[in-house]
């Protein structure tokens, strides 16, 4: 079997990758929205994979993997990798998970990161109302992840939220020292959400990037009574092309609330230091950004090896 073509279509702002073969088998891979600008990046790899056997996934990936980068640019490579596995599974007549080692469990707990409702404001009551709707959603989520701090509109919607001028434009552009008012507002919003969720629904918080080490530690300590599952991307995060493991380790060692990062990172090499130094409590590689399914599996196994 040989790869004969690589195509990319933008459907609903999602780049959809299609790899075709000389045996009529095709594979599909998808990058998350909003990434319509990725199409030329996907097509850049076309000449490198034409003529290759798509079922030799690792061999094909060795030709293109090193030319990807941190979020969002790793998504092009990741979508191609998933399309290759799709072909390999179809050719073998088995689900891809069996090719990757088989099933470990029958059920996987997921959190609500995508079923969202329009928020009318950013007061504690607004946050309470929002998670109440999520709690009542028919999907029956047992964990909810909510954006707060610099990952939310708080910097521009809450007066005197932080010491700095509000920046608009790119994703999550604000960073700086929190004011006392800003810190209190975040804690009050979390308290309001936990009042609704109780101990029935777990709450995780997407926080940044943008926090200073001092403020990140202060937040972790302030939220200890609420049993938050994790504080995500406080220092670096979405669209930040580095990890800063030593900085995260300082926060993690001082915070009683678990610390999380990794969504923006590309390839296993960029998780190695985070995991080996126990720089965070939770790593969160995104298969659509990290390099694909096999890359995600390696990182998960390496994290498990280190506790």
Automatic annotation (TrEMBL):
<dbReference type="GO" id="GO:0009063">
    <property type="term" value="P:amino acid catabolic process"/>
</dbReference>
<protein>
    <submittedName>
        <fullName>Mandelate racemase</fullName>
    </submittedName>
</protein>
<dbReference type="Pfam" id="PF13378">
    <property type="entry name" value="MR_MLE_C"/>
</dbReference>
<feature type="domain" description="Mandelate racemase/muconate lactonizing enzyme C-terminal">
    <location>
        <begin position="124"/>
        <end position="258"/>
    </location>
</feature>
<dbReference type="InterPro" id="IPR034593">
    <property type="entry name" value="DgoD-like"/>
</dbReference>
<dbReference type="InterPro" id="IPR029017">
    <property type="entry name" value="Enolase-like_N"/>
</dbReference>
<dbReference type="InterPro" id="IPR018110">
    <property type="entry name" value="Mandel_Rmase/mucon_lact_enz_CS"/>
</dbReference>
<dbReference type="GO" id="GO:0016829">
    <property type="term" value="F:lyase activity"/>
</dbReference>
<dbReference type="Pfam" id="PF02746">
    <property type="entry name" value="MR_MLE_N"/>
</dbReference>
<dbReference type="InterPro" id="IPR013342">
    <property type="entry name" value="Mandelate_racemase_C"/>
</dbReference>
<dbReference type="InterPro" id="IPR013341">
    <property type="entry name" value="Mandelate_racemase_N_dom"/>
</dbReference>
<dbReference type="InterPro" id="IPR029065">
    <property type="entry name" value="Enolase_C-like"/>
</dbReference>
<keyword id="KW-0456">Lyase</keyword>
<dbReference type="InterPro" id="IPR036849">
    <property type="entry name" value="Enolase-like_C_sf"/>
</dbReference>
